[in-house]
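Q: What structure does this chain adopt?
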Amino acid sequence: MAAGTVRHARFGGAVPLREMIVGQPGQQRRRYDSSLRRQRAAQTRERIVAAGVQLAHESPAWDWRALTIRAVAERAEVSERTIYRHFPGERELHDAMMQRLEEEAGVKLEGLRLEDVAEATARVYAHVSPLPLVPRMPLDATLTAADQRRRAALLSAMAAPAASWPETDRRMAAAVLDLLWSVTAYERLVAAWELTPQQTTSAITWAIGLIETAIREGRGPTPPAGRAGAARREP
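A:
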């Protein structure tokens, strides 16, 4: 009898093994079971990602250190082993969560154009605004006093060139200048963008110069059409 065949009494001879398997009713059931397993696996994966995103929304500014495999497993009510069936490790789980968060915010980084940056920023801020702020370590008393003096100086510098602006606009402009002035901005450009200290200084002072020009030209953070309403909202 040839290889790959079996003897079947009904047909009175050898029948290819493949035909015997395909012809069995159980084959359709196995195919159905495989499809059902894939569907259930997709549902479990979605449940895991949704649980991770839910935890991210509850964490201060998406504190990824708290989003462990164990924490997500507990929220999704699955075992850690189940998560590892869908994600090789914590990094892959976090990547899936970040993709979902970007989709929720409506931000697409691929193909980003210069004219899209402002809208993308607004979308991200709207998405993270409900999140709790990260509690910061209290500054040394001297550093706190210096911070307060810097903010007061910036507000004072805004008084003359933006005298006709609503107070909220002056505060917004001063706050952005304070952000650019901060050591945090310097560290971001040097560490994340790998700019030299000289390049960082040039970039930040360039941005400050653009804001100064806008202020002197009367172009504030609130469009002119909305300034009357903003002024009326002032206490």
